[in-house]
Automatic annotation (TrEMBL):
Organism superkingdom: Bacteria
Pfam family name, one: AA_permease
Domain Amino acid permease/ SLC12A, chain residue ranges per copy: 1-345
Keyword Transmembrane helix: yes
Location of the protein in the cell: Cell membrane
GO cellular component: plasma membrane
Family annotation (InterPro entries): AA-permease/SLC12A_dom (IPR004841)
BP-aspect Gene Ontology terms: amino acid transport; transmembrane transport
The name this protein goes by in its record: Amino acid permease/ SLC12A domain-containing protein
Lineage, broadest ranks: Bacteria, Bacillati, Bacillota, Bacilli, Bacillales
UniProt keyword annotations, A-Z: Amino-acid transport, Cell membrane, Membrane, Transmembrane, Transmembrane helix, Transport
Transmembrane segments: 20-39, 51-74, 94-115, 136-155, 175-195, 231-249, 255-274, 295-318, 324-343
Membrane-protein topology: Multi-pass membrane protein
Source organism per UniProt: Marinithermofilum abyssi
Main location group: membrane
Amino acid sequence: MAEITAIGLYVKYWFPDIPQWLPALIALIAVYVLNLIAVKVFGEVEFWLSIIKVVTILALIVLGLAMIFTGWGNQGQPVGFSNLWDEGGFFPKGFAGVFFSLQMVMFAFLGTELVGVTAGEAKDPRETLPKAINSIFWRILIFYIGSLLVIMALFPWNQVSEKTSPFVLVFDKVGIASAAGIVNFVVMSAAFSSCNSGVFSTGRMLLALSHSRQAPHAFGQVNRRRIPAKGITASAIVLLIGVLLNYVIPEKAFTYITSVATVGALWTWGIIVYTHMQYKRAVKRGEAPEVDYRLAGTPVVNWLVIAFLVLVGVLLWFDPETRVALIVGPIWFLIIGIAYQFVKGRGTVNPPAET
């Protein structure tokens, strides 16, 4: 829902008078159709969308480093790294801004928890999971921290506004024409890619839940193209709530949706950490085998993660626009819990089809 909302906002850059819900609906229909065609089509679309994102971020990092060290695009004057500590340093107005940004930071990292969620379904978890976890670390280091480091080195904090993308500032500084339009297209394609992946994964999750008798039997079926069409359709129907929110409250839709999504992420990460703690206790009791790839610092690190998750949840309460998530989240969990009581044990026991 957050991604189709973002698409609705990005399209308004070119067409300011278009209602926000319309591009959101068009994006949803496009994602739905793509996921129903074939897995090969999904993979091809995701490949090119990912290429756009990666190339743009790498271009920003390379161009930014050139300005930092050589002064290219800055009248030949190397920018250096002094902007990182000038103008009041990292916390010019205290820690409050950092704390209240954690909600959006958590939302930005949604998706990495799928490594933990899918751990039980990996064919060779001892080999594949360490590789996946290590690759996530390097991707965060390069694409998130790397790009942020370059941006903060190029521009002091008081020159960056929420009204202008930092990517636009960098590309505009080196004289790239139509920088704003290019970046807007890139972030819109990134949002479409994320929504596309979300619908794809949700259909497969419902398929797996059905085969473990935790979801209705219908979700355990695949069509002649080996696609879980009913699960994908159910996912698309729920996404219509996002379109409705963009119609009713377009100004607040994105904040509401991202806040609720953050609550879901807090719960998911909490369950992952709790499960790991239970596993370590089972190892000590001799009830489970130890693995070679271990989390250092347990159980202290586990409790630190839980404390951080609780902190983010508490901070959501202090903003009236994010506080709604702490109300909607538990209600949604209650609905899911009640629904589960009706569907558990009613799925299919057939082995999941390859999709």
